[in-house]
Write a structure and sequence with these properties.
single chain; 352 residues; alpha/beta; Rossmann fold; Glutathione S-transferase Yfyf (Class Pi), Chain A, domain 2; 2 domains; 40% helix; globular
Length: 352
């Protein structure tokens, strides 16, 4: 997979800019606030149809403008475009349009035309942060490779929203329409089973793969959804006003091995900061391998300004990922990149 060029119009700090990339490695250098992460975010948008920084698309539109456009050429033959329009355009809510070679697509069909794996400072807190970060990681990997997962997650999310609205209504009125609950329950159970199965397969891949960076076991803490479990939590849900079981409550832990006690311990609580980051590096490497295994294409690696967050040994491990796929690196510190690598990269310099 090869990202040939990128065009930005009214995206974040970019008014109108164009970039071309090497088939091998491109280094984007610039001071903080120059727009390095914005450039990476734009590429991520073209891959996933969404931002990794915000849930509010309007924030990506340049201040004072109403429409933002991101477009790129992939593999010399595929033209991708995302258009983001603010609510000020007259339709109320923000609008997004996805196009492949000029033809409009739904997000579910847009994903997969540009395969990327992103490694950013936000990822370094994956194993110690909230369960949402870990669920997002699983979702990003599986949405990239599996359209059935994308469909199931979309349907599950919509049904969950409707069911939670019903629960809120019951709290307000005291009236419960069991037929309505049965309808949404059936959708949640059907799609939830698919989501759980796909997540189990991914975690099994993690656990069965050779771990060259850091040895661990991923423990899947799944929240199964069934009629029996929904009935079990029926009273508690009325008090909470939200659905308490299902894959939206999933989590996983990364457990390292203690050879002395022949036991495992959660890296989140018992690992050093260095061990926690090694675990994340290993998971990111597995993400690359999993996408390639499923789609037979090596995804593009995006390394967004992570070198200032890592020590020399970690930087060395990250740089070992370069050369196996197209890689785009952003940094404010060019000196972090070894001279032998600098000699063979294309450099883009951003000014503040």
């Amino acid at each position: 997979m090869f990202l040939k060029n990128l065009s930005l119009q009214n995206f974040r700090n970019y008014s109108k800019s164009e970039f071309s990339f090497s088939k091998d490695t491109t280094l984007v250098v610039g001071p903080n606030t120059a727009g390095k992460t914005n450039l990476i975010e734009a590429i991520f948008f073209l891959s996933t149809g969404k931002s990794f920084r915000t849930d509010k698309d309007e924030q990506a539109i340049r201040f004072g403008e109403e429409v933002s456009r991101i477009s790129a050429e992939v593999n010399n033959s595929i033209l991708l475009e995302v258009v983001i329009a603010s609510g000020a355009m007259g339709r109320g809510a923000n609008q997004k349009r996805y196009m492949v070679n000029g033809v409009g697509k739904k997000r579910i069909d847009f994903i997969g035309n540009l395969l990327v794996v992103l490694f950013s400072p936000l990822d370094l807190d994956m194993v110690i942060g909230s369960p949402t970060l870990r669920r997002n990681f699983l979702n990003n990997v599986l949405e990239t490779v599996d359209i059935e997962y994308r469909r199931s997650l979309l349907e599950f999310t919509k049904a969950l929203r409707q069911r939670n609205a019903l629960l809120d209504r019951v709290r307000e009125t005291g009236i419960r329409d069991e037929k309505q609950f049965e309808y949404w329950d059936n959708i949640l159970i059907k799609t939830g089973e698919v989501i759980t199965q796909k997540r189990e397969e991914l975690i099994s891949f993690f656990n069965s793969s050779q771990k060259d960076i850091f040895d661990f076991a991923v423990i899947y803490d799944k929240s199964l959804i069934s009629k029996a479990r929904l009935l079990q939590y029926k009273s508690a849900e009325l008090g909470a006003g939200v659905t308490l079981v299902g894959p939206h409550r999933d989590d996983f832990s990364v457990d390292m091995f203690n050879n002395n006690t022949k036991s495992t311990h959660d890296v989140k609580f018992f690992g050093s900061r260095g061990q926690q980051r090694l675990a994340v590096l290993q998971l990111k490497l597995f993400e690359l391998e999993f996408v390639e295994k499923k789609l037979f294409v090596r995804p593009i690696l995006l390394l967004d300004d992570i070198f200032s967050e890592l020590d020399k040994e970690h930087i060395k491990l990250v740089l070992e990922m370069i050369g196996k796929q197209q890689t785009i690196i952003t940094t404010a510190h060019k000196e972090f990149i070894p001279h032998n690598i600098l000699a063979n990269v294309q450099t883009i310099s951003l000014l503040q």
